[in-house]
Design a protein that fits this description.
By secondary structure, this protein is mainly alpha-helical. The protein has twelve helices and five strands. The longest helix has 34 residues. It is a multi-pass membrane protein.
Length: 315
């Protein structure tokens, strides 16, 4: 804390209050987060490597998947490592600048994730519902444009949130009841009379997330209607196994994030808020590699070619 001329204290650092004050629970939390983090990094790096090296995976679908894995690698790295270190060292402080930086990258990558998931659902819609026009609609130029717009939307959203909230005066409590610098918890630390702009940005952002979610849902409704007309039971099963896991992760990610960002701001600590945040910070980057690799025949074949000698593959 620093003191200005009017004898009011301005926040120079924040204290991240995680899951528990108990040393034993902090150790358990650190161990679980470390295992999950390593699994997420390994899975996403593996997908990036496979989709880059294997010539059979040089298609729009895997181009989008490579971007998603690249994003998820950094998305989980923005919040989890700091939380692990804080639990192990019991040093929960984060500087004002560090908190602003963490909030920016989190909002940037979270928004980009929403955009990429929406693009991927559109890609599957065109592939299944308009297969004869797929190569015309989802060409290389269109893929690059959609990815550029996704990443740009994330940067704009991150800048809007951080500019709005960190230009507000943080005077008084500096305890963030979360394991990272999340916007709703930061808003509870500023004067309620001066947060109108940030609340407006949150409402706008949540509205866009809802629009994306509705677009994804409509895409899958059309996809499922086409799947049900497939005469082959094997063909229906294969398509369902690709689409349903994607839809489950999207639903978990978007609904949990929207609930956290639209519920009333509270100054009280809630473990449920922290647990809810896990569903939009930790779960998607960890589950995406499992869904898109273990349940994908092409990815499994690429994995075998990478790690199993050719003579053993054909025995």
């Amino acid at each position: 804390m620093t003191t200005d001329d009017d004898n009011t204290t301005e926040v120079a650092e924040f204290l991240l209050m995680g899951f528990s004050d108990s040393w034993e629970m902090q150790t358990v939390h650190a161990a679980i987060f470390l295992l999950v983090y390593l699994a997420a990094l390994t899975g996403n790096l593996l997908i990036i490597m496979l989709t880059t090296l294997d010539v059979h995976l040089q298609t729009p679908m895997y181009f989008f998947l490579r971007n998603l894995s690249f994003l998820d690698f950094f998305y989980i790295s923005v919040t989890v490592p700091k939380s692990i270190v804080s639990s192990l060292t019991h040093e929960t402080s984060i500087s004002f600048f560090g908190c602003a930086l963490q909030a920016f990258f989190f909002m940037d990558l979270a928004t980009t994730e929403v955009a990429i998931l929406t693009v991927m659902s559109y890609d599957r819609y065109v592939a299944i519902c308009q297969p004869l026009r797929y190569e015309v609609i989802i060409n290389l130029r269109a893929c690059v444009k959609m990815m550029a717009m996704s990443w740009l939307s994330g940067v704009i959203c991150g800048l809007m949130h951080v500019t709005a909230i960190f230009s507000l005066p943080f005077c008084g409590p500096n305890r963030v009841h979360q394991f990272f610098c999340d916007i709703p918890q930061l808003l509870s630390l500023v004067d309620s009379k001066v947060i109108i702009i940030e609340i407006g940005i949150m409402v706008l952002g949540t509205s866009l997330v809802i629009i994306c979610f509705v677009s994804i849902t409509l895409s899958y409704m059309y996809i499922f209607s086409v799947i049900m007309r497939i005469p082959s039971k094997e063909g229906r099963s294969k398509t369902f196994s690709t689409c349903i896991p994607h839809l489950v992760v999207v639903t978990l990610f978007m609904i949990s994030g929207s609930v956290a960002y639209v519920k009333p701001i509270s100054n009280s600590h809630s473990v449920l808020d922290v647990l809810l945040s896990v569903f939009y910070t930790v779960v998607p980057p960890t589950l995406n590699p499992i869904i898109y690799s273990l349940r994908n025949k092409d990815m499994n074949m690429a994995l075998k070619k990478l790690f199993v000698p050719s003579r053993e593959r054909y025995k």
